[in-house]
Amino acid sequence: MSGEQALLGLVIAALGTYLWRFLGVAFSGRINTESEVFRWMSCVAYAMLAGLVARIILMPIGLLEEASLLTRISAVTLAAGVMLWRHPRFGGLVPALILGCVFVGGVSALG
Amino acid sequence: MTEARWQFRSKQEALRRGLRDGIGVPAAVLFAGMLGFGALGHSIGLSLALTGSTTIFMFALPGQIVFAEMVALGASAWLAGLAAMITAARFLPMTLTVLPQIPAEHQSRFRYLTVHMLALTSWAVAMRDFPKMEPQYRQAYLIGMSAACYGCAIPGTFIGYLLAGQVPVPLTLALLFVNPLFFFLTFFEVKPVANRLALVFGAAVGLSVYVVFPDYSILAAGAVGGSLAYGLNRWREQRTQARADGLPR
Questions:
Q1: pTM (whole model) above 0.90
Q2: Is A39's Cβ below 8 Å from some Cβ in B?
Q3: ipTM of model
Q4: Among A2, A7, A12, A17, which would you mutate to test the B interface (most chain B Cβ atoms within 10 Å of its Cβ)?
């Protein structure tokens, strides 16, 4: 792809991404947080996010494939355990995130 | 809400709190994710300017990855742009769920601009923490949080590009894992049953569709998985209500 083509692609991608944000702002004023439409949209948003995250963890594209499926599942399971552990310092989000990522990097470094 | 409320004296204070909270885990997650993306841009032969521009003008990591890979593969500009646009569809339900929680009279005049800085990360945090604060402070808090994320993502991309090839593979792998793991972990803080069901159905539908039609997996996960979850929860609530009313099932 030439420089001009890449620039055209970037403009389309940027406008295409912003379009969804724009529509969201434009329509948000008409939505009540107690309404059924709002509850349905929440389900759609969380389902999209879960679909994306499950795909990246279980069927990644690119370099993340270098970490085996077993490594990725073990890292996620370990991190979930730490996330739910009610220890004031070693439980919760941040320790879980660090442990999971260090695990993936560490297994790759040793293997 | 049973949770303790966060007390703010002014919108400025809410903005500062948003910035400060943002500079913690959310910005670190985005910074790491964008380091990984910058390294990807370098490894597939994009220019520094194009790689950095996708962060500045798109600011949607999955779409940026799709776009970069298609440009590198030589797809047409239209195809690469439209593919990125499809992956960004999630911003519609995201903005439609977060903005109505801010009263109209307290929404920023610049909301059409600030919405550009909204990321999955700041959305997830806002959905979790909005109930803890008075509605009039939510806009300021969200802008602070989003600005912190956006502000860290841009240098992250450039640094990742410039460091690419000089960082060992295990470190790159650990960085690439930050984004998905962060979102996975925030799922444990999702409280409403309907939304929990949506996570399960979304993952199941997304994975199944990905095997056959990879380009549409995210859309299908949302439209099919989300609607199934909503319907099932609706049915469950009505059944509980019917029982409470003493009606036969």
A1: no
A2: yes
A3: 0.88
A4: A17
